[in-house]
Amino acid sequence: MAAEREEPADGVDSLAGSAVLRPLRLGNAFEETVERLLQTIRLGIVAPGEALPAERELAARFSVSRDTLREAIRSLADAGYLVARRGRYGGTFVADPLPPPTAVGPPPTAAELDDALGLREILEVGAARAAAGRDLSAGDRALLWSRLRESADASLEDHRRLDSRLHLAIGEIAGLPSLLTLIADNRMRINAYLDRIPFLTPNLEHSNRQHEAIVTAILTGDADAAAAATAEHLGGTAALLRGFLR
Asked: What are the average pLDDT values for consecutive 10-residue runs of the chain, which has 246 residues?
């Protein structure tokens, strides 16, 4: 059965936004709030220059106190990720430009890398197959084309964020909110590893062609081709990460 929406939801109103802006586990409220806000920024749920939801809404989504949320926002503002503006059109905005990505902590062990990459293959190949098997609405198709164009036209500085948006869109169209949550969490792990290796222009060009093959297969309802193209695409990224980080 086709999805009912005819226009693609974007930002915090999208399924991807709901997957990220969800209640925290609350083992460490401040740290987890910072982590989730960074996920919102670095996966492109809220783009540079755009406003975060109001404090009251964010605190409710995360199930944290407004004091905890404000402390997390203040810390990310000090780090250059967020900007507070006062006045009638004020609020908390994602910095534009964002700080350049930096590697934090020790590099992953071989076992950690294999775990993240293996999980990614299971999640994203399955998502592509599921998306291709659905009766897509006009909104679904518009969302995929929009994310594909964004990724293809992205500058080096924006590529990882907009690439993430495309992969999340495929997960969104698969129609399983729990799957989308897992993809978003896994993507943050993968992006942290990618921050440790250089951008290779030929790889980006190759990646764009693979993205087009994936999207075309989904739009034409070819589940086997979508799964195969996704597996090939993820395999290339996995090879680079293993080459640089092992």
From this structure: 51 78 76 92 94 94 93 96 89 94 87 98 98 97 96 92 97 95 96 93 92 98 98 96 94
Token output for 240:
């680079």
Mean pLDDT of all residues belonging to the chain: 91
Give every CB contact of residue 42 below 8 A, 6+ residues apart in sequence: 101, 160, 161, 164, 188, 191
Instruction: Pick the last residue of a domain from 94, 127, 160.
Output: 94
Which DSSP symbol is given to 174? T
Residue 207 lies in a domain: yes
Cis ω before 108 (30° cut-off from 0): no
* pTM for the whole structure: 0.88
Identify whether residues 162 and 222 lie together within a single domain: yes
CA distance 156 to 159: 5
Is position 104 within any domain? no
C-beta of residue 99 within 8 angstroms of C-beta of residue 81: yes
